[in-house]
Structures are given as structure tokens and as C-alpha cells.
Amino acid sequence: MVTHMGSKWVEMRKRQMQVHQEAAASVLQARHRMGDTPTNASNACCFCWCCCCSCSCLTVRSEDETIQRTTYERRTEGTSNCDDSLKPALEDAHSWSTSFEKIMKSAAGRSCFRQFLRTEFSEENMMFWLACEDLKKETNKTVVEEKVRQIYEDFISILSPKEVSLDSRVRDVINRNMLEPTSHTFDDAQQQIYTLMQRDSYPRYMNSAAYADLLTSLEEPSSEPPSEP
What we know:
The chain is an all-alpha fold and 229 residues long. It is 62% helix and 0% strand. The protein is elongated and about 55 Å long.
């Protein structure tokens, strides 16, 4: 079953890649007619470096890797609902139900919510949001450009198994921003993913057994051995 799903996913990605290659070739031809031919014209899909992350210039991940990831994701479905090292206080956990902002401002809240997203196969949304937060703290231009490239490959490229769901408008904004990468290259995309988690996954987490079990576990008194007289 996993092999079948992995094969189907790879075929879908191949079709998407073909569409992007054809679009890239069309852009190259148009620019050539305008006298603005890129220096790497021999490779039609590389009309700009950011778009290479969505075309066959990159080494396509193998079907075996895809299947392994699918298997791993299925295994994680039964994992605990919160990282023990970031277990929240009861008051903190209760406050998460008041607003999405509360849970996202809490390190423990993000950890517990991320575990829930993993069971829904959407952990990449939190991973992308956190990567953008980390990027915005960076000031070194060289490091910023490298982080931007990595985020694009990890979460924006259609070849990535962690691709986040963005509309065409935001993708266009990203591709324009990639021409001159900054620490705010993905701001629009980050906001769209934040809103997606807030409207979609957050209400389900608040009504989930995972959140209820967490509150129950925090309300239970710790089992300490009685002190000896």
C-alpha cells in the first residue's frame, strides 16, 4: 500500500515538474525574442536561479526516498502529543484555547501543536513558519541568501515532499522576491500559512483527544513516593 502511494506521489510530481518546465521554456523564448536571453540559455529551465528549485535542474528525489518518508510519517501518527522537554504548565495549556496567538507565542504550545500537525501530515506548515521566523532574525547578507535558498527548496519547490500550500499570487510574490533575497522574502507566504493553521488545524487541535489528554495529564498530581518518617 505504501509503495503504491509513493509511486502515485512521484507520478504527480513528475507531471507538475513537466508543467513548470514548459512554463519556464515559454518565458525563456519570450525573453529571447525581447533580446533578454539569460547567460545559461542552453538550459531552458534555468532562466532564474530561484525557479531552478522547481525544475529538473535539481536532482529529483528518488522514489525510494519518497516511500521511506511516507512510511516514517505513518509511524509518527501514534507519537505523544507533546515534547516532554517542553511540557507546559496547566495554566499555559489552558490559555491556548483563548486564541491561536497564545499557542504560537508559547514554545511548549508550538511543540504540542506541531506534534498534532504531524498526525495530520501537515507538520511542514509549522516547520516553514519557524524557518521564516529564524530567517527574519538573520542580518548577515550571505547567510540570509543561503537560508532563503534552503527554505525555497525545502518548502516552496514542487519537488519537495514538504511543500506548503500557497496560492499563485503568493508564489508570484516569492519568485519576484527571490531576485533580491532578504530576510523578509517569505513574509506573505508565512502569513498565509499562519492563517491556514489558525483557521484549519487549530480548531481541530482544540477539539482533539490529544489536547484533552494533555490537559488531563497536567491536572493529575505527580506520583511521588511517600516520604519515609
